[in-house]
Amino acid sequence: MDRQQSTSGHPRRQRRPTLLVLVAVATAITLFTPYSQGTLFIHGQRQQQHRLAVQDPSSSPALFFDDRGTATTENNAFLQEQNDQDRRRLELQCQEILATPLLSSPPSEPLLESLPFSAMAGPPENSTWRLWYRKWADPSKESSKEIEKSGFLLGNGRSQILVGGGIHVERIRLSEESSWSGGPGVDRVAHAPSEGEDNASKSGDDEEEGEKYRGGNVPAEEASQRQEALEKVRMAVKEKGRVRPKEKIVESLKGDERGFGSQVAFGELLVEEVKKFETVREYRRELDLETGVATVTFSVGDIQYKREHFCSFPDAVCVMRLEASEPKSISIKVSLNSAHEETGTVEYTNVHNRLGMRARLRSNNLTTEAMVTVATEGATGVSLANSRQVVALGFDAITLYYTMGTGWVLTGEYPNFEDKDPHDRLMSVMDKAVGGLYGDQYLKHVNDHQTLFQGFRLDLGQSKNKLPTDELLKASKRGDAGEEGTYLDALMVQYARYLLIASSRTGSLPLSGRSLWSQDQNTGLDDPSFGYKMDIDLQMNYWLAESTGLGETVTPLIDYMENLLVPRGQDTASLYYGARGWLTHPYSNIWAHTGPTAQDQTFYLPTTAAWLCQHAWDRYLYSQDYYFLRDHAYKLMKGAAQFWVDTLVRFQRDEEGGRGPLMVSPSFAPGHGGVTEGAAMDQQLVWQLLNNTLEAIVVVGERDRLFTQNLTSALEAIAPGLKVGSWGQLQEWNLDMDDPNERHPHLGYLWAVYPGNQIFFRNSSSSSNGDEDEDEDEKEPTREELLEAARESLIHRGMGDRPGGDFGWAKSWRAAVWARLGDGRLSYEAVETFKRDHIFEHPNLLDFKDGLSGLLGVGAAMVEMLIQSRAPGFVDILTVADLPDQWLRRSGLVEGFRTREGHVVSSRWEVGGTVRQVEVVASLKAGSLRVKIGSLGGEDRTPSAKVRVSLKGSTKVVEYSREEDVVVLAAVVKGQTYVIDIDD
Q1: pTM as predicted
Q2: Residues 6+ apart with CB under 8 A from 352
Q3: Which fold is adopted by the domain 869-984?
Q4: Looking at domain 484-862, which CATH architecture does it have?
Q5: How far apart are CA 703 and CA 688, in angstroms?
Q6: Which residue numbers delimit the Glycosyl hydrolase family 95 N-terminal domain (predicted)?
Q7: Euclidean distance between CA atoms 734 and 565, whole angstroms
């Protein structure tokens, strides 16, 4: 009887164990659903209501739910009391955390503590191209340097970040492209009245005018003196042939570096885990190059943690999301640290969990600001904040949105820079981001990134990557990476493309890549070596862009030329040279420095603008955009060409009054050799500029007949800078004074080989005009002779790894030139030298001391080894001899390669490099195309090879002609796709 009464009094209790199992299963299913909010759903099998008792392990009373998952009314009061108690507990904990000191910046402790790691994670399965690691490279090292060696670089053009991947502390290095010292703002600081002084106490307008920032230019009243100094140097060169750089007359050409400034650090975002884990399992951090998303995952006990990072170009915001497999598991502290605490101008604010950080740079009062919003998910969590930090405890997920900027703006009529407060702009960006859905923002970012990244494919037959990247580098260094070594080569190409996407987007400044992410480079001193180096670095950053489908990333470089270099460069041309047009010298900044600097040996390169204009011309060739050429590229080229029409000189050569060719004078070979006339690099650059401009004139229909006539005359008379010297070398100077033992890193005299193409289109005959009676000394060297001379010079110049001149760009340039010369063995030797000196010791493949140009350049060189488009109408596929064996052990492909007429070329090859198919999409232009195929050879080499050309998707055979290893498509039609099949 008692038993029956007890049962009737609690009619559902006898089924409690079974229902608890159902609860456990449903909870597990729910918690591991993506973006779950932790809601518990119980789906009953019966239609009638029933009650389910679940014992909360933290309290003795049972919690009751109906089959909709909601608590019954009899327990609402109990639930409310429990929630209130939990909230009070979390609030107290928040208050305690807020009272603790902030972490120092730069940090005094490692980024990733020496935690025990167990159950090593396997390789990611979601991407082909990635950097991934099972643990931090060396947690015992000082963390500021460690993040530069091992952190992930992400960016959206204007903002770049370095993500460390720490567990207890995630330090995110913040960088912004316009965080620069120097410039016109220096005047505001220098002339700001001190305490007790007013503006009237200044010494007058003359003194202020004398201190004005001019981008390296002299005041107008000193222009005649500078032009006289220039003429004296020209005359000295005429008399002596060469003038030493240290002579006083050369020193008179040096410029003013005051106000040049340098890029300075911005600050850090710190995300600290409140819970301290004793052991983590399956730790893995990954940068997916295909999505532009960095991910950190690990497990603690039964809970799996995941953190995602990306910087969105469409939304102009960077994002970090923290999730866990169980609800209420995310508990963090978030804070911002400025890199400019010493200025005394830093202000920290917090409005509704939106932290702000403002400061002014010491040298110029430029405003810098960053803000981060902590968006929480989960009704049971608690967050409290003060002006420096937000503490969020017990949430299901947290998303951090952060953005940064400065007051740098170019407004109105040049050169009026304005320190425009960035606050409203950043607030607008943040409001939009916080008002959106994370899933939508993630997909928008990925779609935008992949639109660019997926435009080019490369398959070297590499095996599937299983080794973590740091282990892959160590194995490659030992020489036992096997087929994964081939993966590393292909990875470097795609990584270079990824970095360009992250660092150079429409609306941003061009990629500098020198001190942008260095927390230690924060002096704010005038240091041109950390600015835009335009005697190789800046240009090399973009070598990979056009041919691999990233032409859009070149836009910031064109904008920089138009908006900054041209206006100031016109002043430089007028003041220093008394000439029209524009020019710039080899160092510049965001304040448009175009005058010479005071750097020894590298302060003077007046042909810098000619080199930059090659990128504008290439942008037209690859895009075939007439309006871009007419409205932008041609204007840049015409101005630069006008300068040289006015300033090229021609000295009398003999007693009879004969006159030699037009020369650049004075002229430097970058970095060494003294001052001469007509150094090879200068002559080659000006020749190429004038030639390109003449071609552009035909397209745009130039009406300025006098300019066209003068340009044509100059082009006919200019020395091309291609001479063969006494020991068979391609001369670096007009004088035959090359030292065969010289190992200087710069290859300016080989510009006509790569990235130029002038040397390949020289006359192949033994005489320039076919006159057999012409004096032997007056004959121009043939193309074959020049190519052989270039090889001889490059062999003597070495691999660019001399002591004291160990630059990544030097090896990359050598790799590209050897590829253009058709020598795969020496090209790959240069690639291996680059890896040895700049890759193997850097787990993230980034040598920040050297900058990014080396990696971007070596990526371009490896593409050049496989496929080339030297000029419109030409494409060479696997024509480089002696390609690395490991690249040809399996079949491979290149897809999405662009030619200089905008054609899109893809090719597949078999083991050993035998090309079986080439596909040409004539997407932008009709005309002829010569397709040179390395494995095709002449009739004597491959007599049985059968070539067939057809339209894709059609049985129609297309007429073609064959010239040994070249398939000539005489009349491709815009919009058609041509398929070249080759059978034995």
Answers
A1: 0.89
A2: none
A3: Immunoglobulin-like (2.60.40)
A4: Alpha/alpha barrel (1.50)
A5: 22
A6: 147-407
A7: 29
